[in-house]
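User: I'm writing a tutorial on reading structure tokens. Could you give me a worked example: one chain, its sequence, then its tokens, then a sentence or two explaining what the tokens reveal?
Assistant: Sure. Here is the example chain.
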Amino acid sequence: MIKILSVAFFFIILSESCLTLKSDWWEDASLYQIYPRSWKDSDGNGIGDLKGITEKLDYLREIGMTATWLSPIFESPMADNGYDISNFTNIDPIFGTLEDFDALLKKAKNLGLKVLVDFVPNHSSDECEWFKKSINREDGYDDFYVWADGKDDPQNPGKKLPPSNWISIFGGSMWEWNEKRQQFYLHQFYKEQPDFNFRNPKVHTAMLEVLKFWLDRGVDGFRIDAVPHMYEKILEDGTFPDEPLSGETDDSNCQDFLKHIYTQEQYETVELLYEWREFLDEYKRVHGGDTRVLLAEAYVSVETIDQYYGNGTHFGAHLPFNFNFDAMLKLPHLNARIFEETVSLWMDSIWKKHKMGNWVVGNHDLLRVGDRVGEERKDLINILVAALPGVTITYYGEEIGMTSIFYDCEDCLTGEERNFGRSPFQWNDDISAGFSSSPNTWLPVAENYKKVNVKVQRGVARSSLNIFKASQKLKHTAAFKAFKDKGGFSYGALNENVFQIIRGSNEEYRILANFGNKLETIGALLSSHKDGRNYFEYILVTCYSPHNIGDRVRLESVFLVPFETVILKKILKK
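And here are its predicted structure tokens:
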């Protein structure tokens, strides 16, 4: 069924919420996640760095990006690949210096690119000075982190048991005993990542100072890590309640053993987002310039995302990430109807209320998209995502169809590298795919780099790279933004395998994608009496297509071969 959002409905909502027709820079943005270790190595040590990112920023303009978000680059012992921060206002020497970061920002601004950085407020490294002071109960830091005495062990007098049965994200107890302080501290992630106590106002102040530090240097916003984990339930007597069993597994060491009703998505988290949003809005009022944005990483329900956006009185994150595609891409039998359901889940709830959309394709914790949906459908996903209204969020390498590596890494920093989606970016067919001058890179380069790289794909008309660039170029045209002011958007599954998106009002574009492995003759599903004499021109075709750019067709004659995706533009009416 084709979903059509009415123009009348849109203008009613528009007038009621006093929105303007002009979009802010981030509302239709194309965001690109760079994993700094794997983007470009400038000094030949096999690890990507800030100078390498600066060197290659022009590429982001080439592929149509509005902004880039950098995964953590801050001082860290790297127990969790930089998500364990020991100094929130300095660059880790692995990546460079603050001066290198300033140079990156300067070049980005000259190119018209926005730069966002990771903000990791849930926890620090156990090597952070704040945590060391907290262990020593120094004034002002005594309850900077979540500490608890624990329970008496009836079997071992004098020994303490964890305060609750809570299980960390990575398995095992969420509580770690500190011998010096003689208390347990909370860690929702690794034991090397103690959780801040946001019930302490001084923690709020410290986090605002971190935001201000990077805003003053010129960043354009922040991606907030691990949003649902900021607060935990504490009872009136200061104790921590046990969480109930989930029934999903018998492994008492596994996170899925419990229902996380006391350690995730507590109501205070929403108020914390409002506080940070107010701080960024005030910063803009004082200092001027463009909007500084908040992206929120949160694998939560659409109901919770609704709260993260705001309640009409207060505003929260500009973009709480839409991870619905993650669940969809894991399904073994992805088809057009499932894709429609996934899009509708967002459009029928979040878009109708907030007029904001974002579509996340891949990230550093997942297998590559091509590995999940099949090589033959990776371009299909990129085209459809670019055709949807709102923001696209692309993980580095997805635009050229990079694949995951399968590598048993004994020397990696943590087991997380076995997510296999963080291998060095493939720039060319030279040594280490042009990522580094060294053959020894922090993770191996994918074996297919000789064919799957930027240099080769620039010269192939129907390569993943050129298809991605063409899709992004269309995304930023007036016709593809028309939904904001003229209602030019509809979508839906035409049958089990074929998905259609219609964009534009004065100009009409039809995006047609065949998820299936058989020929689809869909002319009868497309044409109507009003379209009967219209011609459409092929303006984008994938490598599987028998059609050519510039070919003309009437809707009644349209067909799609297996896994073919095309974009048609209405060009003539006689």
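What the tokens reveal: The chain has two domains: 27-122+201-231+268-473, 147-193+232-265. The first helix runs from residue 7 to 17.
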